[in-house]
Every structure is written in structure tokens, then in C-alpha cells.
Amino acid sequence: MKTMAATSPINWHQLPAGEVARVLEVELPSGLSAVEVQRRREKYGPNRLTPRRRRSELLRFILQFHQPLIYLQADIGVAMGIAGTDVAKGAADMLLTDDNFATIEAAVEEGRNVFDNLTKFILWTLPTNFGQGLLILAGVFAGVALPILPVQLLWVNMTTVLLLGLMLVFEPRELDLMQRPPRGPKTPIMTFPMIMRIGLVSAMMLAGAFGLFVWEQAAHSASVVEARTIAVNVIVMVLVFYLLNCRSLTRSMFAVGVFSNWWIIAGIAAMIAAQLLFTYAPVMNRLFQTAPISGEAWLHILAVALVAYAVVGVEKWIHSRWATARNGMELSQNLNTSNTLRGA
Questions:
Q1: Tens of pLDDT, residues 103-125
Q2: pTM (2 d.p.)
Q3: Which of 69, 133, 142, 286 lies 20 to 30 angstroms, CA to CA, from 198?
């Protein structure tokens, strides 16, 4: 322990297991002797165990010196792939093949990024299905022609998932990824705030698409085919702007960097080009029963999409402020509890 006090703070996560043992003056094969354990206990005091972890002296002795029981007792047992024994490797949940604790940090970071992008994709794609289903139900209950046809639904589902949703896979890691608190093992992927956001986007998609479908026919004498084309473009443009919202679960696209993911930009450009062909190409008009629409209709479509983007942005800001305040209160409570235990 003298070596530790004489040097600068050690970054333990970057040291192999053998180096950690050398710095702590521990012999790997035999561990600490009874005399050394007593000396360190007198010098540093006994370990403070929470009531959940408090065990009898005999069981604490067994858990300390018998590796398999230690790994079974731990939440996650980690064994060394090089210096660890075969018994330890078999009992552990995680095996470090290079005996380097920094590997755990790298694996956690990669796993968090994969989970983050998967959550973003699910959060983006679910309003597509809910919004389309609500749009058809609205047409049925209102007693009007279907606002969108099955073949048009097929077009929206295929193109948006391929050109928009898939691009979220290439979203780079967010800067605060490793500063976030760990998720609870029983926490579901779809939390209540996320479910509320899905419902909000679905409702705005329904209001925008069905509203323009009815209004264009009543106010501008548009045909049913033209109104359906407008409704399809409303759904697609709302998904385009919502994709920009989904680049981060808590921050705006300007905070993560507008051009930090060029795959998103390329996917949006390809989606817009596909929609222009869907709307104006004669062969697409025949296949999908669409018709060319006016520039004024496009302004209405973009207005709906921008409103949806702004509403989701405000919802994210409110939820972020609420989550920050809640985490601050929990941290304060934990610090007060820790200080109380130390005083006791």
C-alpha cells in the first residue's frame, strides 16, 4: 500500500489483473495471509456492508477466499482468461480474455450504443404503423373514402424503413453515453415517456393526414386521388422530420450535430426523390393510384411536418428538464443517506 500512496492516482481500469495484484501487494496463487488480513483490517477498518450484503463471519470468510462462491455471490462475476483458474472461469458470468479491465468499459460502451440505436429505431418506426392504422379507422368511422390505399401503405412501409429507419443504425455514439446511470435489469425498453411520445406522433400524423385529406377536397376541389397522394406525402414528411428528432432521445439534432451522420442526410434525400417519383412519374401514378399535386399542397404538407417536429422537440425538452430534476433529487437523497451512514 506504500507504493499506492507515493505515486499519482492509478487508473485501475487500464491495468491487467497481474499489475493490479502487484500494486496491491497480493500474491495471486495464495491471496492474503491471515496476518496481512488482520493488519489491513486494523489499518483501514472493516468493510461497511449494506444490510442486504451483511453475512456471518464464516460465510464472509468463505466468499472472500473461494473464487467460485465469490462469482456466484456477485451480481456479475468476472474471471481472468489468462491468469484465472479453470474453476473461476466456469463459475464467472464474464470472462476477460486479455485480463484487461478496460475491455469491460469498451464492451459496455459498445453495448450501450447498440441498445441506444435500437431504441431510437423502435421509437421511430412504431408511430408509422399506429398512425396508418388510425388513419384508416378515421376514414371508416367518418364514412368517407379511404384516405390511403393498401398498395400505398405498402409503399410507405417499404421505402421509409429502408431509406430512413435503417440509417439510424449508423448514428454515432452520443457524448454523454458513458455518463448516464445504468438501466435497471427489469426496466422495459419502452418506458412510459416513450409510449407517450409514440402516441403523440401518431395523433399528429392522423390529424395532419386526415385533416388535409378532407380539407383539400372541400376547400380546393381536389379529387380523391389527389387527396390520397397528399395524405401519403404527409405521412412520409412527418416521418422524415421525426427521424431528425429520433437521432437523440433527449436532445435536438443541433446538439448532436446536423451533419454528424451523413447516412441520415443521404437517406432523407433518397426518400424525397422517391416521393417526387411517387407523385409525378406517370408509371408510379398508374401503379399506386396517385396524381400530381400543386405547390400549395406541398406547403401545407411541410407545415404539418414542421409542426410535428416542433411539438416533439418541446416534449423532449420538457422531459429532459423533468428527468434532470428527478436525477438531482435522487442524487441528493443518496448523498444524505451516505452521510447519515458515515455519521452512524
A1: 778 888 888 888 888 989 999 99
A2: 0.70
A3: 142
